[in-house]
Amino acid sequence: MPQATFDMALGTEKVLLFYKAKKNRVQVIARDGRSLNLPWELFKPHITPAGIHGTFTVFFEPGGKCKRLVAL
User: Fold this and answer.
1) Which residue among 12, 13, 51, 55 is least packed, with the fewest CB closer than 10 Å?
2) Which residues of 14-51 form beta strands (DSSP E)?
3) Cβ neighbours of residue 41 closer than 8 Å, sequence gap 6 or more
4) Where are the domains of the chain?
């Protein structure tokens, strides 16, 4: 299954922009240099009071659709 790993540091102010529906996609750069535009819904389970911080791997279906996001 295709995948990409990336690091993220998104503070509470940025997270609030997504919750207020001003943004619904998150742009990240994978460790291999690929630019990824991911749906905000994938990140919701990983929100903490400090925002979203850590290393994540996103798994894609064969057609390129995001399947799941896993915190490492």
Assistant:
1) 13
2) 25-29, 35-39
3) none
4) 3-71
